[in-house]
Amino acid sequence: xxxxxxxxxxxxYYQLYVIFQWLYFNGKFRTIVVETWAQIPAxxx
Length: 45
Description:
The protein is mostly helical. It has 2 helices and no strands. The protein is 82% helix and 0% strand.
């Protein structure tokens, strides 16, 4: 992984973090967050 690769993954996980925070503070979406989070590892393989 080069420098550009590190930036890509940083941006990717930063966006996930922002989305996760937004959904977390909207309590009715917490279940959706958990279900989506569980599917991320499988989707990245």
